[in-house]
Amino acid sequence: MDRVETRELAYFVAVAEELHFGRAAGRLGMAQPPLSRAIRQLERRLGVELLIRNSRGVRLTEAGEVLLHEGRKALDAVEAAVRRAQRAGEPERKLVVVMKPNGDAGLLGGILQAYQGDPEALPVEVEICRIGEQAGLLREGRADVALLHDPYDDLSGFDTEELLTQRSVAVLPRTHGLARRRSLHMADLAGETMPRWPGLPGDGPEVRDTAQMMQLIALGRMVAVMPEAVRRNLREELVAIPVLDGQITTVVLAWPERSRSRAVAAFVRAAVGLVQAEEGTTIAFPAAVGHENLVPASDFEVAPHPL
Amino acid sequence: MDRVETRELAYFVAVAEELHFGRAAGRLGMAQPPLSRAIRQLERRLGVELLIRNSRGVRLTEAGEVLLHEGRKALDAVEAAVRRAQRAGEPERKLVVVMKPNGDAGLLGGILQAYQGDPEALPVEVEICRIGEQAGLLREGRADVALLHDPYDDLSGFDTEELLTQRSVAVLPRTHGLARRRSLHMADLAGETMPRWPGLPGDGPEVRDTAQMMQLIALGRMVAVMPEAVRRNLREELVAIPVLDGQITTVVLAWPERSRSRAVAAFVRAAVGLVQAEEGTTIAFPAAVGHENLVPASDFEVAPHPL
DNA sequence: CGGCGGCGATACCCTTGCGGTATGGATCGG
DNA sequence: CCGATCCATACCGCAAGGGTATCGCCGCCG
């Protein structure tokens, strides 16, 4: 059997997402009949029924579900291949590091310093993206490495190296009834309104970024349980209380699997070397914190580290 | 910028592999001029030089290297998407498990038994492939799950679950000077001829499969250090001696990342459940071994398990 | 030094097949 | 029963992919 073109895959994905030939054709910037024909042709060539058309709508068969899912991955891979090749051909090469705001837990400065000492190092561009975009940017080949968070980000398709584990703190308004506690358990927060992050399920109000969330917490509209690195940018009127049984978050360095880029390899070396040198320190804080709302890390010691 | 078609990617990969337009065109079943043109066109569209043509051969630019590498992955992904969709559309669905001969270390029987009890289970087809083919079959979508060996197989692009760790044994002819030792270190085998497996570097004679290797060992042409599961099919004239500092091999169950197949999920459940139930037993041997060339597992206890 | 051979690029032509428009046919709602 | 909606079919034109012939360049060898 001969090749399936990306065009055909993209057509199918569009139809499978819209479940409507007309709308899909519109999205693809073409007329409906050629789209119908292309999909039929694809089905004939694969020898599989992908869609069930009952003259008043479209449904996916099981094979169609699979092709939608796998086809998206394949299209991602093609796009990433092109973009990485283009980036590799640019006259001044650079390494793009992507993370969400504060997503490095204070590690990036040290990593960059170590990296620049490597003979294979390239100039670095740090891209601060919006929450939920990190993994996608890396998948599409727009970035070379990313600082991601396990278990919140989807790490599949990447090679990774764990850099740092973080425990959780509850971010509360200073006026909250629990604000003077030295530590909490998740059960203490039962019934509180929690933020809902884009892409994740939940019933709280959706928040786009940490600043927005902080604002809402300060207004008493919600509380949040976050990796302890949030303490680096707490507002005056908020406090962070350790949550002893909260989610453990791992900051991981991720890059495209089976990458052969020497610049990426050097970056990974730098990052791993750095965290190994700092082994034992769970999280780095600026030396001069000065803020009373920063809970001393020793408070975590009341509970054994669950890892 | 508009889409890159798989056709164009395949053309480029062929040329990049052959480093010769004529041969690549032959391989693709087409004439050389359209191929030249297609590649030029691809370069123009990407805005990147991929090949350096000096009228007496072709070389890859750095961008070309990247596109060769990433393009192969992308083509794999497209092919896998198609094949998985086709498999999902077959009237009698089945689950294809792939492994190399003896690659399950005796686990598969139990896994299959546990799996068949699951309500989501499908009929299973066990595919025994040649050495080095396992990961590829899974990548191409010809199999649903594979039993692979870390660190020998390339696990990137798969989700995995570790099932079993195996220590190493040296397979020696009964007449070998070391054949009566109770245990060895790698240093004891310095200077011995070792097999070279397909795809891996090395300087020994290449072997295709274990049976061939066993034959060569019996003839005194080589010795081999293998995961201890080889003891399950040793010939009469061979012995297996624990190698205390040999490579630790992990049998992992692998499946396409981000898979949504319920049948695969059920298989993973069955396998993980099984190994958890047997937790503590490092490797399962048939109850009635009876072969004196099977070294008792207790011999391994002289060295602490390095994991 | 000149001819030859190998290799990629160019020129030109033909055919395929993709995409567009017009229309048909089925089904559901009122 | 009519109209609206939506996918399929019919048909057409043109862009683009593929083939053949040939050129230009370069290294090799007589």
Entry keywords:
homodimer; Arc Repressor Mutant, subunit A; alpha+beta; D-Maltodextrin-Binding Protein, domain 2; disordered C terminus; DNA-binding; 307 residues; 5-stranded mixed sheet; 3 domains
Overall description:
The termini of chain A are far apart. Chain A has helices spanning 6-18, 21-28, 32-46, 62-89, 108-116, 134-139, 210-218, 262-277; strands at 51-53, 58-60, 95-99, 124-128, 145-150, 158-166, 168-173, 224-227, 238-243, 249-256. In chain A, strand 1 (51-53) and strand 2 form a beta hairpin. The relative contact order of chain A is 0.14. By secondary structure, chain A is an alpha+beta fold. Chain A is flat, with a radius of gyration of 24 Å. In chain A, helix 5 (108-116) crosses helix 8 (262-277). Mean pLDDT of chain A is 82; it is low at 281-307. In chain A, the strands form three sheets. Chain A has a five-stranded mixed beta sheet with strand order 4-3-5-10-6. Chain A has a three-stranded antiparallel beta sheet with strand order 8-7-9. Chain A has a two-stranded antiparallel ribbon with strand order 1-2. Chain A is built from eight helices and ten strands. Chain A has three domains: 6-85, Winged helix-like DNA-binding domain superfamily/Winged helix DNA-binding domain (Arc Repressor Mutant, subunit A, Orthogonal Bundle); 92-162 and 251-288, Periplasmic binding protein-like II (D-Maltodextrin-Binding Protein, domain 2), CATH 3.40.190; 168-247, Periplasmic binding protein-like II (D-Maltodextrin-Binding Protein, domain 2). At the A-B interface, helix 1 and helix 4 of A face helix 1 and helix 4 of B. The structure holds a DNA duplex (30 and 30 nucleotides).
